[in-house]
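Deviations from the work plan: none for this task. Representative record:
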Amino acid sequence: MRAVLDCIPCIIRQGLNTARLATDDPKVQREILDRIMQELIGTPLTGTPGDHSNVAYRVVREVTGVDDPYYELKRKYNRIALELYPRLKELVVSSEDPLHTAVKLAAAGNVIDLGIGVQFDVEREVEEVLRTPFSVDHFPGFVEELERAERLIYIGDNAGEIVFDKVLIEEIRKEADCEVTFVVRGGPCINDALREDAEEVGMEEVARVIDTGSDGIGIPWADVSEEFKEEFLKADVRIAKGQGNFETLSERSDPIYFILKAKCEAVARELGVGYGEVVFKRHPAAPPRSSLSPPS
Amino acid sequence: MRAVLDCIPCIIRQGLNTARLATDDPKVQREILDRIMQELIGTPLTGTPGDHSNVAYRVVREVTGVDDPYYELKRKYNRIALELYPRLKELVVSSEDPLHTAVKLAAAGNVIDLGIGVQFDVEREVEEVLRTPFSVDHFPGFVEELERAERLIYIGDNAGEIVFDKVLIEEIRKEADCEVTFVVRGGPCINDALREDAEEVGMEEVARVIDTGSDGIGIPWADVSEEFKEEFLKADVRIAKGQGNFETLSERSDPIYFILKAKCEAVARELGVGYGEVVFKRHPAAPPRSSLSPPS
């Protein structure tokens, strides 16, 4: 999707949130805001929201020299999520449809997004998401595609959240005899999971871990590695978590199951749902079931 | 209170909301955002949030030539609130403490704030505010001061909301034999009530109506009329509604009863309450009851 005018104040707010993690000096924080505004003025919004948000994070890096302002927070949220892991497994095991519950938990994990600056309470949100039906739920089609899958790619989002992703991948592997590749960012990018986060939560036990080759938000196609592109293109089932991945992948024709909470009006509009709603959406939509071609 | 760094993205968002009312042309909307950013860069945040927000509204006016972008919305919200008026009176009359209920309704009216861009539903919010106790409630002291009051000044906020203010003023006049002056802005200022709004809701039936002499947000002391200042200073009870009035009056030593919902983190912090909470707060706080001096 293309960035919209609403992205401009949002990018500046993201810059402020990040500046406050990188420095305690209000003068430096202000310098960061001024430089972000300077860069935004006159810049046509031709890219995705993620492309334009990258400016905010780059400016924080340039001004403060801090390469990974969310480093400590990522440790903290991995720890919180790992403490929750036994409870998540219990919820899955005790449910009527473990795979569907695991998809819902993966969505619940997406509320853990520090970059966007909204207050949250992990446990309460988990229960809330489990209780609330998805606004769009393409689960039946997913189960069908999964049965025939040979290669599944799963593009992660935030630290902490990846513990929830691991729970879903464990259920996927029970249902399908397919190779699973989990994707992290190639370098510090907001609070997004990197290789060290994947290691911290033991993701290698359930999936091959690769990175995008880029420290840009989501999947900036012009900037990601050939290895990533190859894995992405040859996968027969693709899952992508969170807004950054949706913003940067929503215009591709390759079918992707997006799991995310619409954390801003622009993304909600693009998804065709209400602000704050949570979806499990195949995009582009699947053809009618009867016309699905057999696996090649 | 002084503006904080969080005000910067917020001012730009206010500019965007207002630009969209003043013009349908996205290029002009973008020009407005760029000009607001240009003005903000390097400007020290020495004023109140309201002082700095004025920039956004001035730029919209300069670029589009539209003097009062909220004109139609103000008509609409006066109409909605007037339709609600019989129900508000009913709620007051049927309650155990009509004056306290009227104060709560005046607070409920403050959720009608189009400038801040949050979705709302008037009736639901009214019931919600009535149900929820104020986070700070200086009602007992207010009743005491009201008994001895000779001149009360009531500084309004938004169109629509002033219908709720009228309901409170009607209750005040039942309790206290005092002159009541109701204050509107001196010129178009977001969706704030002007003289025509006061006329539209029949405010003159219950109060003398004056204006601030300024089209600035809240009470920009350097810019308001002598008539306003005189009325303000000689009043023995002062009520001020909403964030704009709080932001611009919170550093004055004259005691004021603020009725508002904390619609941003910075104002919540200044009030010492949580984001989204609603207060009826005397500021500065009253001296202990026993030491109150008799009326002069």
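The beta strands of chain A are 136-137, 151-155, 179-184, 208-211, 237-241, 256-261, 278-283.
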